[in-house]
Design goal:
Elements (H helix, E strand, L loop, with lengths): L1 H14 L10 E8 L11 E6 L2 H13 L1 H7 L13 H17 L4 E7 L3 H4 L2 H11 L3 H13 L1 E6 L2 E2 L16 H16 L5 E5 L2 E7 L3 H18 L10 E4 L2 H9 L11 E2 L2 E4 L2 E4 L7 H18 L5 H16 L10 H16 L7 H10 L6 H19 L1 H10 L1
Parallel strand pairs: 1-4, 8-9
Antiparallel strand pairs: 1-2, 3-7, 3-8, 4-5, 6-7, 10-11
Length: about 400
């Protein structure tokens, strides 16, 4: 307990205005490949910052302590850094809206705006100013700012460490307070862009706007142009090659595909019918089976067939199915039902793994084996388990969506 008291005293002194000790103001930049097709491209690497345990514990503790302050400015459509929401909430609420529009046969158009290297290019002075204006406790803000300005970063390349340096801009990806900083930076945008007649949602650097109604194209263009201006003013760079537009209206899709976005150098933005948004697959052509989802389940089926032929004990096969293949095959099934034929083929391949290829597949044997190893690997059962678990979580966390659906039924 004496050691904890010493640590608490040290952190109180730091929050009172002292600098962080030199031994704690260090970080290691680790590079994670984002695109497997570009292993040699330094811009295709995600920079993750490994920070000292003392700082991370302090930041996590203070983030919890500031809940009441965060609740004063948090918005329901900011899905990280404010309310206890996440990616699952973002895509599920969006899919509920799109499902409702499809049911009412209303067209919609959406835009996903990608911010290039968001964490690496954030203007920290802007973060401090907005946090101060928002009323962030001065002791916490001061300690946070002093750490960010003094931390020495070492690049890890292979097994070696580079020469320490101080970052001129950016906030660490891996810092508990970085999500909070992102939410503060984009909260004014959420309030302002919705005046363009669109629905906005933010998950750190994943920005989405959806327009509907008779003026959906003009509303979308106005909101996207405003977003480009806002990001430019805060020092961010929009990546046109990674941004995506979409629409359920064929004429709108053709028009958007030819439109030149003047705020980002007269660039065109790709228009897609089948796109991935966080943990969901959106298809604007109203097809039941999504192309990306079908590719994933076909790949899982191929691997499962190979797995069934390998001399691996059943418990290990079940572990592979549970930990790897079901996650691959059942991606986004909480929002989109897979193709029935594809699911049957995958289920047969899974049964071959459990009871052995060529043997008569008896459902009782399959269930008994799963029960014996405490794993549910049957694809249909696993899929419905995911669907109902997500449904329950979202409707508990979003009572307004629950009331909407109950009113419809």
């Amino acid at each position: 307990m004496k050691a904890y008291a010493q640590i608490a005293s040290l952190l109180n002194i730091i929050e009172g205005g002292a600098q962080w000790p030199r031994g704690t103001a260090k970080g290691k930049a680790v590079y994670m490949q984002k695109d497997e097709s570009k292993p040699d491209d330094p811009m295709a690497q995600r920079v993750l910052m490994m920070l000292p345990a003392l700082y991370r514990r302090w930041a996590g503790c203070r983030l919890t302590a500031m809940r009441d302050w965060v609740a004063k400015w948090a918005l329901q459509n900011i899905y990280a850094g404010a309310l206890p929401l996440g990616a699952e909430d973002a895509w599920y609420v969006l899919m509920l809206k799109l499902e409702d529009l499809d049911r009412r046969k209303e067209d919609y158009a959406g835009a996903m705006i990608d911010i290039s290297r968001f964490f690496d290019q954030v203007n920290r002075q802007l973060v401090y100013k907005i946090a101060r204006l928002a009323g962030m406790p001065t002791g916490i803000l001061g300690a946070y700012a002093r750490f960010q300005e003094s931390v020495k970063v070492y690049n890890e390349i292979g097994k070696g460490l580079g020469i320490p340096y101080t970052r001129r801009c950016g906030i660490p990806q891996g810092d508990p307070l970085s999500m909070l900083a992102a939410a503060l930076l984009l909260r004014p945008w959420v309030e302002a862009v919705q005046r363009c007649g669109v629905q906005a949602s933010v998950l750190v650097d994943d920005i989405m706007v959806v327009a509907q109604g008779d003026d959906l194209v003009s509303d979308l263009v106005r909101s996207v142009n405003f977003t480009h201006d806002y990001l430019h003013d805060m020092g961010a760079i929009v990546a046109p090659s990674k941004s995506i537009n979409s629409s359920s209206n064929g004429i709108a899709r053709k028009w958007l595909a030819e439109y030149l976005w003047t705020r980002i150098g007269n660039a065109k933005i790709d228009v897609q019918r089948d796109l991935r948004y966080l943990g969901a697959q959106i298809n604007t052509t109203k097809k039941k089976a999504k192309a990306t989802a079908r590719k994933r389940i076909e790949k899982a089926t191929y691997i499962a067939r190979k797995l069934a032929k390998m001399p691996i004990p059943i418990p290990k096969q079940m572990h592979i199915l549970d930990a790897k293949l079901n996650n691959l095959a059942l991606y986004a099934t909480e929002a989109n039902m897979p193709n029935e034929g594809d699911l049957k083929k995958y289920a047969v391949a899974v049964a071959d793994c459990i009871v052995g290829k060529g043997r008569k597949r008896d459902i009782a044997d399959t269930i008994a084996l799963q029960a014996a190893h405490y794993k549910v690997v049957d694809p249909v059962a696993a899929m419905h388990s995911k669907v109902f678990a997500t449904f329950r979580r979202i409707f508990v966390k979003h009572p307004e969506e629950r009331e909407k659906k109950l009113t419809e039924f």
